[in-house]
Amino acid sequence: MQAALAASFPQKSIAALQKMMADGELSSEQLTTEALNAAARRQQLNAFIFVDLDGAIQQARESDEQRRRGDNPGVLHGIPVAVKDNIHVAGMPNTAGTPLLKSFVPRADAPVVERLRAAGAVVLGKTNLHELAFGITSNNAAFGAVGNARNPRYIAGGSSGGTAVAVAAGMAVAGLGTDTGGSSRIPAALNGIVGFRPTVGRYPSEGLTRISSTRDTVGPMGRNVADVALLDAVLANEDASLEPAALEGLRLGVPRRYFYDGLEPLVARRMEAALQALAEAGAALVEANIDGVAELNQAVSFPVVLFETGLLLSEYLAENLPGGTLQALAESIASPDVKNIFAGIVNGDMPEAAYRQAIDRDRPLLRAAYADYFARRRVEAIVFPTTPLTARPLAEAGETVELNGEQVPAFPIYIRNTDPGSNAGIPGLSIPLAATPGEMPAGIEIDGPEGSDRRLLAIGAAIETLIRKAGPGSAAGLPKQNF
């Protein structure tokens, strides 16, 4: 009985765990030990690149001692979290999933990690990722592929696959990923957890191995919206309170064209069930498309990230790895898909003129299209599938994947729905839809206007509750959790 209870600790919400610790039913050391045990038991998932075994236990013991002394605990007091290995944690390697950086150990925490620690979090270690955060499978040739938490033979999604798997598999209560075009939301959807991309600039960006100053942001991940909202408040240095939104009368945009095209039948079925549940709860579903979203996004996406990557990583190497160059980095890359991309970056295949057009003309047009949609349609959020398809087997996920009987390019199809909001700089939240044990998870995403982060999380909390009430066997149902 005690072993079964201990194994359930990391699966509970942060609020439930905090109450147990406050009531003396649980210690941070017990919780942290079980998270570390889970990481050891499921080591084949390859979620972590580095685990700070002794350091994590010491942090947990200090948390317990603070609580015994009656010190005012932070909102994450004693909660074990995982951090993606492109976010600096003092004294831990920051490989960014690539060989050239495997020996680089930052001396200082990134500001986002400082804020986690100030709130009382226990940092367990650094999680695996698609090399240099440039992919959607987390099949890393340098540190090994990350296996999906539901089925290790399937892809975890990326690039923050390790954090998603660590949270989904009970190796951490919550964690940090990063998101450039979907890197926190895609693996969240494919592993059945919650992933959030905030408005660009909401969190500090120092201390990251960044690939785009325009698009990159830290992305908190957790097992439920409330936990992610708590992380968001800590990272943004805001009040942590959050009440679920009222669904009655809530106007939600449903942009069928582009976002709903060619869905995997399982994803389509669960999305329609979710939309029906929202309508029955009184939400007003506004069926309207976003003008020019596909063309504008294509004009912005790769010109921005490919040009900015070369500049940012050159500066990063000069600051953190004396003698390191972009050329040396490119030559040492282990993953073939990433190596091919960096060959073009080093050669300067993306001209500055194309970048300037994307930044000065096309991105403002994309942002204006979203702003006009929210204002003219009078909707507070848009709702769509996070990804058009569920996870595919690792053995079959190369340059292409199977979708509806055809082989389609893997990277573009997985980022198709998450990328436009990323380029517009608006917040997006992925909530799990999967319920049936025999099926792979899927996600529903809501995107909101720039700066609407807390409101979007409140809407997400209401949607999560609505879908969970449907029960684990229904088409729209979420997995039941211990609260």
CATH class: Alpha Beta
Whole-number total of structural domains: 1
**Fraction of residues in helices?**
40-55%
Structural class: alpha/beta
Let me know the CATH homologous superfamily: Amidase signature (AS) domain
Shape: globular
CATH fold annotation: Amidase signature (AS) enzymes
CATH architecture label name: Alpha-Beta Complex
Give the C-alpha Rg: 21 Å
Average pLDDT figure:
94
The overall strand count is 15
Provide structural commentary.
The chain is globular and about 60 Å long. It has helices at 2-8, 14-22, 28-41, 53-69, 111-118, 161-168, 185-191, 225-236, 256-259, 265-280, 293-320, 326-332, 336-346, 352-376, 410-415, 419-424, 453-469, and strands at 48-51, 80-84, 122-127, 139-140, 144-145, 174-179, 194-197, 217-222, 251-254, 284-287, 381-385, 400-403, 406-409, 428-432, 443-447. The protein is α/β, with parallel strands linked by helices and 483 residues long. The strands form three sheets. An eleven-stranded mixed sheet has the order 1-3-2-6-8-7-14-15-11-9-10, with helices on both faces. It has a two-stranded antiparallel ribbon with strand order 4-5. A two-stranded antiparallel sheet has the order 12-13. The model is unreliable at 1-6 and 472-483 (pLDDT under 50). The longest helix is centred in the middle third of the chain and has 28 residues, at 293-320. It has one domain: Amidase signature (AS) enzymes, CATH 3.90.1300.10.
Features:
Amidase signature (AS) enzymes; alpha/beta; 483 residues; two-stranded antiparallel sheet; disordered C terminus; single chain; disordered N terminus
